[in-house]
Design a protein that fits this description.
2 helices, 36% strand
Amino acid sequence: MRAVVQRVARCAVTPAGEAPRRQGPGLLIYVGVERGDGESDAAYIADKAAGLRVFLDDDGKMNRSVADIGGAVTVVSQFTLAGDARRGRRPSFTQAEALERANELYERLVGLLRAAGLPVHTGVFRASMQVESCNDGPVTILLDSRRTF
């Protein structure tokens, strides 16, 4: 499972035909589920994201987590994170997990973040969405449950 975690001042996700889902300071997390991912991968990403100390403390050092600042999390599924563009010009998505299993693991990740006490907003799995964000910093962290980077 791969995730792109961004520290945001605010963000909004708007699924087609729906009202925007907005949040203030916190994290925007894009998640890609790969073939072979399981419960432990979702747990790894949830634990890492919830505990990431990427918010500034009183001394201006990145030393606080999203919970420490009372922030929220928006999680958006993004199968393109499983894309491989090393060959040619069109990315291959053969490593993306099958839809049903990918949705199960996406929902598991969301549930784990909520269980950690975080307010969580979501996009809609497989839906076309508009995502707006005001990156704070900018701070962007890449997570990979298989630790390939």
